[in-house]
Amino acid sequence: MKLTFLGTGTSQGIPIIACKCPVCLSTDKRDKRLRTSALIEVDGHTIVIDSGPDFRYQMLRAQVEKLDAILFTHEHKDHTAGLDDVRAFNWVNKKAVDIYAEERVQASLKQEFAYVFAEFRYPGIPQLKLWAVENKPFYINGTEIIPIRAKHFKLPVYGYRIDDLAYITDSNYISEAEKEKLQGLKVLVLNALRKEKHLSHFTLSEALALIEELKPEKAYLTHFSHQLGFHDEISKELPENVFMAYDGLKIEIY
After folding, report:
1. For the residues of 152-187, what is the DSSP string, one character each?
2. How far is CA 224 from the centre of its chain?
3. How many CA atoms lie within 13 A of 177 on its CB side?
4. Can you give the pLDDT of all 254 residues of the chain as single tens digits?
5. Strands 37-42 and 218-222
6. Quick check: pTM over 0.90?
7. What is the CA 225 to chain-centroid distance, rounded?
């Protein structure tokens, strides 16, 4: 299984429009972050987690030519706004793209992309096949997907476990029961917005405490704000098995 970080920034990305802070002005390419998304290649299939506003460029940059499914964590725009661009894959792959999301998120997609689900469908619109996610395992082309329920302040969101990889973003609470699904991981991906307390995201210290509790072999942090600091400097503060993800980073999980 291969994981590619398509984007590792928060909802505004880094740099933020019109911001002149040192991080936004950084010349280190690892400090240039698109909205958070990930590409998973497993058993010959290609799965993307979330299709935010940067989806089109992320697909081009990662040279993705085949898309089997999109897993949605929740309905916020920085995770869904690029959905229209799946129509390129409809044309190339000659099939609809499978969309996995819980019922509430599906309702949001139907509202935001009403033309896709309208009775009269304009030629060339995205071709999607919706599949409902509940808090129980399901399969994509034979690959088991285990949803992980978390909270984004008061909003329920899903992370996902695929074999020995778990990916959780936009969260600041995971129940003890859901933590049981995160035992024995080789790789845990977890959001760490900034150092200061935040209403709906894990801080750096909170993310590190959870990693210490769950004890994955390795952990990668994602969904960073420019307030967190420079990639190079924060990396020096981390335990030896914890890493700051960056756009384009590829890791293989055996």
Report:
1. ETTEEEEEEEETTEEEE-S-SB--HHHHGGGTT-SE
2. 12
3. 5
4. 999 999 999 999 999 999 999 999 999 999 999 999 999 999 999 999 999 999 999 999 999 999 999 999 999 999 999 999 999 999 999 999 999 999 999 999 999 999 999 988 888 899 999 999 999 999 999 999 999 999 999 999 999 999 999 999 999 999 999 999 999 999 999 999 999 999 999 999 999 999 999 999 999 999 999 999 999 999 999 999 999 999 999 999 99
5. unpaired
6. yes
7. 15
Tell me the C-alpha distance between 110 and 104, whole Å.
10
The alpha carbon dihedral of 173, 177, 183, 185 has a sign of negative
Burial class of 104 by CB neighbour count within 10 A (0 to 12, 13 to 18, 19+): exposed
Residue 179's Cβ-count burial label (10 Å; 0-12, 13-18, 19+) is middle
Contact 243, 219 (CB under 8 A): yes
- Sequence-ordered strand ranges (E) for 92-170: 97-101, 128-132, 138-140, 143-152, 155-162, 165-168
Where do we find the tokens 């299984």? 1
Q: What is the CA radius of gyration of the chain?
A: 17
